Amino acid sequence: MSAAAWHAAVAVLILLLCSRLAAARVQLSHGGALATRRRDNVPATACALTAVPFGYPCEEHQDGMTWLLSSPEESLAYILTDRGFDVWIANTRGTRWSSRHVSLDSSSRDYWDWSWDDLVVKDMPNMVDYVCTHTGQKPHFVGHSMGTLVALAALSEGRLADKMKSAALLSPVAYLAHMTTPIGILLAKTFVGEIISILGVAEFNPISSAVTNLMRELCRHPQTKCYDLVRDLTGMNYCLNNSAVDVLLQYEPQPTSTKTMVHLAQTFRDGVVSKFDYVWPKVNMEKYGQPDPPSYNMSNIPASFPLFLSYGGRDELADPADVGLLLRDLLGHDRRKMTVQYLEQFAHLDFVLGTCAKDYVYNDVISFINRFN
């Protein structure tokens, strides 16, 4: 069997929950023989806007975008596809392309009544099962930012380790206590998510008047600058050029639930990784059977499960000190099954949109995946 034929039998699930896009599938490489089910008369979808113009067959189950915004030579999704992998790009609920529901309307509060706990318990397991069902095999997982948080939390609770071959975690997020982004810190310390929730806003839409007005006030704070929001939120990226930022801002940021924003703020303020805190002990008792929300114990991740972690010294969201706390939890992990990469000059977006990510990160990710086929 040729190398290309071997890799064609290997599925890779890419999850990017930080940017909150939906889900798509890029199937094989240029001129692949597999038929696609793209509908030519459906405009403005991820496949139509990104993969198809480059000649890549692309089958849409929902939509995905951020992993496809770079050129085929620089995007991990395209690079994996060109190596013969079957690439599935997944994401979470609530974005412009994934606002449908079997019974709820996206304008209702019930539709937005979820936090990233629900992604751990429901969404990610269903995504993995979906890929397993359609490919007949266990996928490798690649995640960035909050995608890594969901994967780590799921693995710590005994979920998915028996359904995935490995996990490559870029800018791994678990602890957030040392986050240094001024805007993020101010959002968390001023309880912005809680305030918006009290005001009855269940959807945290960055372009809505409620959120933009609050951001305008926050940007007047002396500790924030807001001249360069990408820089101020993610750190001084090493190889993220202006054109990549321009493309990113055409699609980002996407909506999420206010409850998720509150949950992330709790993670920062409390210094621990735990389930959503309903604040009232009685409500926590009803939800969890105890007055405080239970913690996610990262040391419970199966020691034999293959992990690849890559983090940057300039990352202001996945701060090296917080990654250090995660690595401390993983001290008991089988050293033969864990690879750790530290890139001193990298910040948060370098890992998904950086022009040099292929040379510094992706080649190592592919080597890692090949080790555990």
Keywords:
about 375 residues; eight-stranded mixed β-sheet; two-stranded antiparallel sheet; 15 helices; globular
Set out the fold topology.
Elements: H1 3-8, E1 11-16, E2 24-26, H2 46-51, E3 58-59, H3 76-82, E4 86-90, H4 116-135, E5 140-144, H5 146-156, E6 166-170, H6 182-189, H7 192-198, E7 203-204, H8 209-218, H9 229-234, H10 242-251, E8 256-257, H11 258-270, H12 281-288, E9 307-312, H13 320-329, E10 338-343, H14 350-353, H15 357-371
Parallel strand pairs: 1-4, 1-5, 5-6, 6-9, 9-10
Antiparallel strand pairs: 2-3, 2-4, 7-8
Structure explained in plain terms:
This protein has 373 residues and is α/β, with parallel strands linked by helices. 38% of the residues lie in helices and 11% in strands. The chain is built from 15 helices and 10 strands. The strands form 2 sheets. Strands 3-2-4-1-5-6-9-10 form an 8-stranded mixed β-sheet, sandwiched between helices. It has a two-stranded antiparallel ribbon with strand order 7-8. Helix 6 crosses helix 11 (258-270) and helix 7 runs antiparallel to helix 11. The longest helix is centred in the middle third of the chain and has 20 residues, at 116-135. Residues 1-9 and 16-43 have low confidence and may be disordered.
